[in-house]
Amino acid sequence: MTQATDATPQSPKAASPSVIAQHAATLKALPFSDTRDFDDAARGFLGTIENAKVTNAQGRVVWSLEPYGFLSAEAAPPTVDPSLWRQSRLNMHHGLFEVVPGVYQVRGLDIANMTLIEGDKGVIVVDTLTSIEGARAAMELYFQHRGKRPVAAMIFTHTHTDHWGGARGVVDDDMLAAGVPIIAPNLFMEHAVSENIIAGPAMLRRAQYQFGPFLAKGVHGHVDCGLGKTMAAGGVALLRPTDLIITTGEKRIIDGVEFEFQMAPNSEAPAEMHFFIPRYKLLNLAENCTHNFHNLLPFRGADVRDALAWSKYLGEALQMWGGKAQAMCGQHHWPVWGRDRIDTMIRQQRDLYKYAHDQTIRLMNHGLNAAEIAETIRLPQSLGGAWHGRGYYGHIRHNVKAIYQKYLGWYDANPVNLDALPPVESGKKYVEYMGGADAILKRAAADFAKGEFRFVAQAVSHLVFAEPDNQAARAMLADTFEQLGYAAESSTWRNAYLFGAQELRQGMPKTPPRSPMPRETLAALRTEQLFDVLGVRLNGPKADGKRIVLNWSFTDTGETFVLNLENSALTYIKGMQTPDAHAGFTLARGTLDEVIAKLTTFPEAVGAGKVKVAGDPKQLGELMALMDEFPRMFEIVEPKRSVVA
C-alpha cells in the first residue's frame, strides 16, 4: 500500500491501489479497441524531422519530441490514466501529412498545426505555430517534399499565440513589402494580445500549472497537454492583418482558390473563424471541433467562453457545409475523412457543448452551486463514449464551473462565502479547530491510505498555509497531489497536480527574468493598450496624493494623448493636449516601442533627438518610479513569501 512517507521526499512515488483500480475501470469502460484515430493520425505521412527537433540560431532546442520516447509503449503505466496515455501517444505523430492532394499539414512541431493549401501559383499558410523557429522548420519541411513555392497569403484562424506567433518564420520583410495578404477574423488585433497583456504576468505563471513545462518528461511527470504535446519555447512576433473577415458568408479568392468563411466569435477564442474550400471539399473548423472536450475557462485564466454560442456555430457549420466536405482538418490534432464521419463528429461536438451548457443551467436553476453541479453532472454515453468527447484539455467537471461563473459569477449566494478569510488566516484557524498539525496529519494519513485524496488535499492545504515550513505537511500534500495527478484523465489536471507536488518538494523553479515584449508585437498594439498596461502597473498606495499630467504627441501615427495621474489612478484622453500639463513629449510611436522593448532608454532617445520635451521631464521619471515590476514567479500552493502592498 502506497503511503505518504518521509518529511522531505524529492522523488515521485508509485501509484496507489485506488488509482490503479480506477485505471482498470477506465480500460473496461472506454472503447480501446477502436483504433481509427491512430490510422487517421498516420494517414498521408510524407516525411519529418528526426524527433521533431527544432533549434534556434544559438542552437538551443525550442521543441523536441525525443524526451517523450517512453510513449512508444502501448500499455499505460500505473501512473498515467489509460485514456490520457492513448491521447498522448496519438499526439506523438509528427511531420508533413497530405490531407487531400493540394492540402497539407505540419503536425507535431508545435502544440498547434500549420495547414498549407496550394493555390494556382503559391501556397496559402493557415496558422503559423507558436514560434518563429518552428514555423521556419515547418516551411522548410513542406518545401522539401512539395517544392519551393511562394507564400500567396497567410490566414490566422484565431487570436491565440500558438496560431500566429511564428508568422515571421513564414514571411520576411521583402514578402511583407510586396504585400502578402494576412487574413484574420474581425477584431483580431483587439484580442490577439489584449487577452494576455493586461493580466499577462499572472496568466503566464498560472500557465505553468496548466501546461507543466517545468515537469520532468516521463511516466511520473509530463506526458501531454491534450491539444498537443507541449508548448514551444522559441521567438514570437505578431503581424497585423491586412484583410479582416467581418461576416459569415464572406468569400475570398486567394491565389485562385475560393474560401467560404464563417465567423465564430466568443467561442474557443474571442475572435475566431471557420472556412470551407469547395475546390478541395475541405472543411476547417479552426479550434472549435477538436479531438477532445475543449476548455471553457483555461487554468491560466481568460474570459469565460460561451458554450451556447460555440454549439450554435457548430450547428451553423453543419447547415452551411454538412454533406459537402470529404475531409475536415483543424488547427490541432489529426483530420477526419468521409462525409458521414465528419458530420457525426460535428454533431457530437455541437451537442457536447450544448449538453454541458443546458444541464449546468438546469441544475443551477434547481439551486445547485458550481461544486455541486460538477459532482452531479454526467455526460450521456453517446458523448462521453466518443473519444473526441473526452476531457483531455477541458473537462466536464471544470467546464460546468465556468458556465456557472459566466451566468452567476464567483459568489454562490451562501453568506459564509461572501467575505471568507484568506488562505493563511483561515488555515491557522482550521488547524486550531482541528486540534493541531499532528492530529491533522494522523487523520490525513488514514484517509490517504483509503484513497480519499480530494479531501486530504483540502485539509492538509490548510496546514501548509498555516505552517508553510512544516515539512511533514508539505510531504503529505505533495504525495496527495501526485496521486490525484496520476488519476487524472485531463492533461491539464495532471499537470496542475504534479507541478503543485513538485513545488511543494523542491520549491519554485529558478527562471531567468522575463524578456521584454518584442518590438513587432508592441508595434501591433494600439497606443491605448500600452497606456492601459501602464495603468495596471501603477502602485496605487505609492501614488496616493500625487498628480501628474503629461501630454503625448506621436509624429508617425498623428495621435495625441493626455495622460493623467490623480486619485491613485492613471487615465488618458485621446485626441487632445492640455495647457496645464506638467510636461509634454513629441516622438514617433516607434521610438516609444523601442524604449519599452529595451532597445534604448528614454534619456538616450532624448539625447539622440528622437524625443522633443516641453516642461519638466522629471515628471515622467516620477511617474515611472510609481510603477511595479511584476515577478515572473510567485507562490501558488503555499503562502506568498513577499508582502505586496
From TrEMBL:
Protein family according to the UniProt entry: Belongs to the metallo-beta-lactamase superfamily. Type III sulfatase family.
Cofactors, names only: Zn(2+)
Keywords noted in UniProt: Hydrolase, Metal-binding, Zinc
UniProt cross-references to Pfam families, sorted A to Z: Alkyl_sulf_C, Alkyl_sulf_dimr, Lactamase_B
Protein name: Linear primary-alkylsulfatase
Organism classification: Bacteria, Pseudomonadati, Pseudomonadota, Alphaproteobacteria, Hyphomicrobiales
GO molecular function (one): metal ion binding
Top-rank lineage group of the source organism: Bacteria
Provenance organism: Bradyrhizobium macuxiense
